[in-house]
Design goal:
The complex is a heterodimer. Chain A is an alpha/beta fold. Chain A has helices spanning 30-36, 60-72, 94-100, 103-106, 118-135, 147-164, 183-190, 208-214, 237-246, 279-282, 339-375, 400-406, 410-418, 447-466, 468-472, 485-489, 498-508, and strands at 139-141, 173-177, 194-198, 219-225, 250-254, 274-276, 297-299, 311-314, 319-322, 395-398, 426-427, 436-439. By secondary structure, chain B is α/β, with parallel strands linked by helices. The chains are: A alpha/beta, B alpha/beta. At the A-B interface, helix 1, helix 2, helix 3, helix 4 and helix 5 of A face helix 1, helix 2, helix 3, helix 4 and helix 5 of B.
Chain lengths: 509, 477
């Protein structure tokens, strides 16, 4: 049975004693201190800090113990199945962690002379080439810090493209399917576009009729995830690309679901003009509880001139950073990208090669279809949209029937799964499926762990009919029982920081 | 190595042919290819891609280590570079914690009950940044300082309904470009405030001339890009607020143990770079963007990014943490979200939390003092070299300072080249970014630079500028 650690670990501010020290920074040498005298003479009086920051005061031992206990109250992909749909939670190879902690990377300043950073530039240059090869694009830029950051870059590239063609003012719309990730419309809006939503057809694919009706001379582009968020490959991708391109729009590939296509098929070959890659998904770098990730963007030859500066160049003997790109959109962040994340992806590709990456894709699809098959027949669950068509990397079940018959919702199922030491799937997404359970096993998990998941899913569905209270009150075995999320966001009880918490408490008394 | 010859890849447990067979049988297919049948043949790759052959773990390690060993780092030679990504010591406990697999390999904490560790650590990061900056609310990270500035500008226009942002002329050029790229699609116009030629401080007459009821926000950096401290903070803050504009301040948090926090001079939004707190430089990323604001619901509702809140269990028996105010975010609000940000820099924020907890108030003061002492010592030492001006502005400097070589008749490029021959990496060449300063470099000195290294730098510079570039290595040691 699973039982998560449940320490009564107070917020760090209520730990420690005044005067305790956790770390002593180096002191300036005696001669330096003598030469300069009192610091107060260096700092202008009105800019001196007069109040000590109210930070906790703890010994090193206490700090270590505190955060160790916190880590014990967390669940990672190394703990067990983590089937969050569209999040592609795969194993993060430990050799990649080791390589990313080498001082020969850690201690590099981004502005060092090019002669002192040839090693890392070579790695990044090669990685760009490999990612271009894998996505079927012409050039790849490593700058974006995350998938959504890549999307922002992609939509800014659309903007730059239409501007150069002189019809940006007219091309004010970006089309997204109703099954799209929330970041797609949000990114389009950030780049200044209006968002037009097209519905899915009965097969869960973009409705061609609706797409034809949606495109016009106002269309800047279409953002598409393929396979889509139902795990279904857009069968009409040929036609979709033709419709969008004939209307003068660009086709954007949301790479969140690239895993099942690795070395099997390439977005660039399907007519996508701009492709982003979630390195922390497909290329197996850890998600770190929210980040850092990396979201490189690949583009066609025509769009390459707009990519952010600097570009990594190679003249046959030396690598360099090239800022001389007059058409570049500029920059979307400081420096060149999340380099320590990208280095892990470089090592990952090296560990697998073409055959290994293809195996990744195939087994991720095998696993998803296996899970789908084993879950069909679970009482109260249905598989909306074409239930016979194979899925790719993920499948989406609906607990709508279960909820109407027992009161047990997708949320309750998710919480109950935690009790078995299994992470929950993504729930309530995509929005086109009611009570959605979006399940992506990835290639990482062995058949035995997949079986454990499906067995427990069946068990939970049974419980919903026999002992619904057990499910409704879940989770029981996690560090804390069900949390009051309404309290967390109510203006009267909201505590977004320790000082806000103290202030609210003081008001109460 | 073809992994199929090995039958099963270590990362792919079900790559074993027997298991695949069992699973295919269960699904009712004869080959995995059937699962790809709906992808048109014309898109199915027929040939292997042009990728490297797979290597064993040992070979991967040897290969990557060999490539990285071509780099020269500040462990190999003294490097006097910062400019937005700074060399600092990362305590061992920080490294230990951010290698904990339960934290490293977790996703965004969508299921809070099983993710309390990450959530509490992020709440503590938020709370400690609040104390350092003297602000009330901090989100759990942005990508970096530059993108945080872009988001802050957009947020200020949403709050005020105005479209103009005033920024200092002496801003990091990469931040200025990023701001421009983020702001332009929202119709935001940025205007630069001129500086006082003598001390680099913002020219408040220029501010008074440019600010109006169209100004959404006034932005300053403290310390500035060029390392000096902007002292007219109260005046600038008053001026901004008198015109109904927001006051945005960018900070380097290592200064806040000794420098007045922006909350004390009425900043509405504080941004900055927390990489120096527990995170290595890594050639410029990942970084950690700070984003903080005051306790004002009109402002909070416009915050970008994830925010962790403290709550209780539904039975009120225990405190707990969860993501909150999610209706601002893209997964709920879609095109009406305050930002498109989803993945952020959470693990870097945990590293910062551990570092801040280790330092405590005393540690922060001492760290600030050490940096202040060392940087100012280096600045004074270099300023004594004949025909060198350091710094170019008569203001107080923290961590970074400018050095001008015009009088010596040498370019920064030449000087840096000769320094490198002497196994020293000089400061960042800013003569193209700010041509008005002539041949000027931006030097960075932190707690990791020893007095000995500072002396070596000063001696090497003396030799170079006096035409003796081939200074003996033994003399430098």
């Amino acid at each position: 049975m699973f039982k998560q650690a449940s320490w009564d670990e107070p917020v760090i501010f209520s730990r420690g004693r005044k005067g305790r020290r956790g770390h002593i920074p180096p002191k300036a040498e005696q001669e330096i201190r003598q030469a300069l005298g009192d610091l107060n003479s260096l700092l202008p009086k009105n800019m001196q800090r007069t109040s000590r920051p109210r930070l906790p005061e703890l010994s090193e031992v206490e700090v270590m113990r505190h955060f160790l206990r916190l880590s014990e109250m967390n669940y990672g992909v190394d703990s067990g199945l983590y089937p969050l749909g569209s999040c592609t939670m795969k194993y993060n190879p430990k050799i990649n962690e080791l390589l990313a902690s080498l001082p020969s990377l850690n201690m590099l300043n981004p502005y060092q002379d090019e002669s002192t950073v040839q090693g890392i530039l070579e790695i990044l240059y090669r990685l760009e080439r490999w990612l271009a090869e894998i996505t079927g694009t012409h050039e790849v830029c490593l700058q974006p810090a995350a998938g959504a950051h890549g999307e922002l870059l992609g939509t800014l590239l659309m903007r730059a493209h239409h501007k150069l063609n002189g019809d940006y003012e007219k091309r004010s719309e970006i089309i997204v399917p109703d099954s799209a990730h929330g970041t797609n419309p949000a990114s389009a809006a950030m780049a200044g576009f209006n968002v037009v939503v097209v519905p899915s057809d009965d097969d869960g694919c973009v409705s061609l009729g609706a797409l034809k009706a949606a495109v016009s001379e106002r269309t800047a582009g279409l953002m598409l995830t393929n396979p889509n968020t139902l795990g279904i490959f857009e069968k009409n991708i040929d036609e979709i690309a033709r419709i969008v391109h004939e209307a003068g729009g660009l086709l954007y590939y949301d790479g969140a679901n690239l895993n099942p296509l690795l070395c099997k098929a390439r977005p660039g070959d399907m007519g996508f003009d701009i492709v982003h890659i979630n390195i922390h998904k497909t290329f197996s770098t850890p998600h770190g509880g929210g980040g850092p990730g990396a979201g490189p963007v690949g583009v066609t030859e025509e769009l390459a001139k707009f990519l952010p500066i600097p570009r990594i160049g190679f003249n046959g003997t030396r690598y360099c950073l090239d800022y001389d790109k007059p058409h570049s959109i500029g920059k979307i962040r400081g420096f060149y990208g999340n380099i320590a994340v990208l280095l892990r992806a470089y090592a990952y590709i090296l560990s697998l090669g073409n055959e290994g990456l293809k195996e990744v894709a195939e087994v991720s699809v095998l696993n998803a279809n296996y899970l789908m098959k084993k879950l069909q027949g679970a009482k109260g669950l249905t598989l909306p949209y074409n239930s016979v068509r194979p899925r790719k990397h993920e499948c989406v079940f609906s607990a709508k029937l279960l909820k109407s018959e027992t009161g047990v919702s997708a949320l309750n199922i998710a919480k109950r799964l935690l009790d078995f030491g299994l992470h929950a799937p993504t729930i309530y997404f995509p929005l086109i499926v009611e009570e959605a359970l979006m399940i992506e096993p990835t290639e990482t998990f062995e058949k035995e762990e997949l079986d454990r998941f499906t067995e427990n899913m069946h068990k939970i569905c049974e419980e919903a009919y026999t002992t619904p209270e057990t499910v409704l009150q879940a989770p029981h075995n996690t560090a804390v029982s069900k949390l009051d999320e309404v309290k967390a966001s109510h203006p009267r009880t909201m505590a977004l920081s320790w000082r806000m918490h103290l202030k609210k408490n003081a008001q109460k008394t | 190595m073809n992994i199929l010859e090995k039958r099963s890849h270590p990362y792919i447990p079900n790559s074993l042919p027997e298991i695949k067979q069992e699973m295919m049988q269960e699904i009712g297919i004869k080959s995995i290819d059937e699962l790809y049948a709906d992808i048109s043949q014309k898109y199915r790759l027929k040939k292997p891609l042009n990728l490297p052959h797979a290597l064993s773990e040992f070979e991967v390690k040897r290969h990557v280590e060999a490539l990285l060993s071509k780099n020269k780092t500040c462990n190999d030679i003294p490097v006097f570079l910062g400019a937005g990504c700074w060399p600092h010591y990362v305590p061992a406990v920080v490294r230990e914690i951010v290698q904990r697999s339960e934290l490293v390999t977790s996703y965004t904490p969508y299921q809070p009950e099983i993710s309390q560790g990450m959530l509490q650590a992020l709440f503590e990061y938020q709370s400690m940044i609040c104390e350092l900056t003297d602000m009330d609310i901090v989100n759990c990270s942005m990508y970096d300082w530059a993108s945080a500035l872009g988001e802050a500008a957009r947020m200020a226009t949403r709050i005020t309904g105005r479209k103009e942002i005033l920024i200092p002329k002496l801003i990091h050029p990469e931040r200025a470009v990023t701001l421009q790229v983020y702001a332009e699609p929202a119709g935001i116009v940025t205007e630069k405030l001129v500086y006082d030629k003598e001390n680099g401080q913002i020219n408040t007459d220029d501010l008074k001339g440019k600010i109006s009821n169209k100004t959404a926000a006034v932005y300053i950096e403290n310390p500035s890009y060029l390392g000096f401290i902007e002292e007219q903070v109260k005046e600038i803050s008053r001026e901004a607020h008198a015109h109904g504009a927001l006051f945005i301040v960018g900070v380097d948090p290592t200064s806040l143990g000794i420098l007045k926090p922006p909350g004390e001079y009425d900043a509405d939004i504080v941004i900055g770079e927390a990489q120096p707190l527990g995170n290595f430089m890594n050639f410029g990323g990942p970084l950690l963007g700070i984003f903080a604001c005051r306790d004002d619901m009109n402002i909070i509702r416009q915050m970008p990014g994830r925010i962790i809140g403290m709550t209780t269990t539904q039975d009120s028996s225990k405190h707990g943490f969860c993501m909150t105010l999610q209706t601002r975010e893209q997964h709920i609000r879609r095109e009406k979200a305050t930002s498109n940000i989803c993945s952020n820099e959470a693990l870097c924020a945990v590293a910062s939390a551990v570092h801040m907890a280790l330092l405590g108030p005393e540690g922060f003061r001492e760290l600030g003092e050490t940096i202040m002492y060392k940087a100012n010592y280096a600045m004074q030492r270099i300023s004594k070299i004949s025909r060198v001006k350091a710094p170019i502005f008569n203001s107080t400097h923290f961590k970074e300072f400018t050095v001008n070589f015009d009088e010596a008749g040498q370019s920064v490029e030449e000087v840096n080249k000769k320094l490198l021959q002497n196994q020293i990496h000089g400061g960042k060449n800013i003569s193209e970014e700010f041509p008005e300063f002539g041949e000027t470099a931006l030097f960075c000195v932190t707690e990791i630079h020893s007095k000995n290294e500072i002396e070596r730098l000063a001696e090497a510079l003396t030799g170079i500028l006096e035409g003796k570039s081939d200074v003996q290595a033994s003399k430098l040691g």
